[in-house]
């Protein structure tokens, strides 16, 4: 969950354990208790380091580990600020930047899965060479019905896709992706 009102990013202890993350003890000066938006105390039991992938931008961040949490992970202002995140509520996107000012954008949607947009997603991680095209196997939702096209509301797309009518079998099809950037693009 993205929470622009949270000063620090958090992970629930249970999620940290499920991910096999190493929980380090708090150091002198670290916050031992934080407070949730409703004013309830959140005892901090340690810190851990997480490797996030924000739409292809890999970022390693330290996050506080708490015992109880409604959400497994909360991305707070510390991570949002360090990644230059811009949240576009009307466009339903979050845009991140790296040190070279490369743009990484992902969809923003509610926890209601019925309200999520229908996107094709790469069936596996693929790296596309600069100024080249690849045919990528993608997973598609049932609502797709074989029609694929580029998302119109992406302000700065990382790559281009061909509009197509594609035969879908078992929730999979293929998509033409053009990397028009002078560096590799990972999808």
Q: Can you characterise this structure?
A:
It is built from two helices and 16 strands. A hairpin with a 5-residue loop joins β7 (93-97) and β8. The model has no long low-confidence stretch (mean pLDDT 81). The chain folds into two domains: 10-97, no CATH class; 118-186, no CATH class. Helices cover 6% and strands 39% of the residues. With 187 residues, it is mainly β. It has helices at 13-18, 77-82, and strands at 10-12, 33-35, 41-54, 57-66, 73-74, 86-88, 93-97, 103-107, 121-122, 127-128, 132-139, 147-148, 160-161, 164-165, 172-179, 185-186. The strands form five sheets. The protein has a five-stranded mixed β-sheet with strand order 2-3-4-1-5. The protein has a four-stranded antiparallel β-sheet with strand order 9-11-15-13, with no helix packed on it. Strands 6-7-8 form a three-stranded antiparallel β-sheet, with no helix packed on it.
Task: Provide a concise account of the structure shown.
The chain is mainly beta and 187 residues long.
List the helices and strands and how they pair.
Blueprint: E1 10-12, H1 13-18, E2 33-35, E3 41-54, E4 57-66, E5 73-74, H2 77-82, E6 86-88, E7 93-97, E8 103-107, E9 121-122, E10 127-128, E11 132-139, E12 147-148, E13 160-161, E14 164-165, E15 172-179, E16 185-186
Parallel strand pairs: 1-4
Antiparallel strand pairs: 1-5, 2-3, 3-4, 6-7, 7-8, 9-11, 10-16, 11-15, 12-14, 13-15
Which key features would you list for this structure?
187 residues, mainly beta, 2 domains, 4-stranded antiparallel β-sheet, 5-stranded mixed β-sheet, 16 strands
